[in-house]
Amino acid sequence: MDTTPACVTCHRELPAWDQQRFACDGCQAAVDSALAELPALYAGLDVTPGRTGPRVGSLHAAPSSRPPIDLAVVDLRTQVAGVLASWVRDWSESGAGDLPAWPATETARVAAAARWLRWRLDWAVRMHPAIDEAVREIRDAHRAVRLAVEGRDERAIRLACPCGSTVSATVSSPGATCPGCGVRYGRAELLALPVAARGRAAA
Fold first, then answer.
1. What is the maximum alpha-carbon separation in the chain?
2. pTM for the complete prediction?
3. Average pLDDT of each block of 10 consecutive residues along the chain (203 residues)?
4. Distance between CA atoms of 162 and 179, rounded to whole angstroms?
5. Quick check: 175 and 185 in contact, CB under 8 A?
6. Is the dihedral of CA 32, 37, 43, 47 positive or negative?
7. For residues 51 and 41, what is the distance between their CA atoms, to the nearest angstrom?
8. Distances 45 to 67, 126, 128, 187 between C-alpha atoms, Å
C-alpha cells in the first residue's frame, strides 16, 4: 500500500522536502490567487437587474416605487460572504488567530475576510485537516462570482497524455486524472502537457 504523502486536494505526491502539509504549493497558490481577486469581483456584483453579467438573471420587481432587485445576485453575495466568514471562524477556532474586526458593509467584510484568510493560508495548508473543503469552497465561490461579473466561464481544453489519451482541464484546474492510464497530474504537470491535436479521441 502506497503511503507517500499526497495533496488532499489534487492528490499530487508531495515533494520529499515539503511533506509537512495537507495541500500542495500549487493548490495553495490557486487559493491565494482566488482570495486576492475575490474582493474586487465581489464589489462588481450589482443587485440592479442587468448591471451584472448575463449569467445572473433572476429578477424581482416590487409593486411599489422601489427599483427591482436581481435576487440571484443577492443570493450569490450572501453565499460568498457566508463561505468566507465561516472559514474565518473555523480557522480562528482551530488556532489561526483572533477574528478580524468586521467592517460595517458587506463588501468591506468580504475584503477583510479574504485578506485574513490569505494571511493565514500557509498555516491552514499545513495545520488544518479540512483544508480540502476550504480550497473547494473558496475556489467555487471565486468561480461563481467571476462568472456572474464577467458573464463567461473558463473553456475546457483537451491535453495530450503520453499514453495516447486526452485529459480535459481548464487553466485554473488544480489537477486532473487521465481517463486512459489513470495517472494523476498536479497543476504544474497538467499545464506542462501539450494541447491535444484536433480530432484526437478521448479515452
1. 67
2. 0.68
3. 77 82 89 92 79 43 55 89 97 94 92 96 94 93 88 70 84 75 80 68 47
4. 12
5. yes
6. negative
7. 13
8. 16, 33, 31, 29
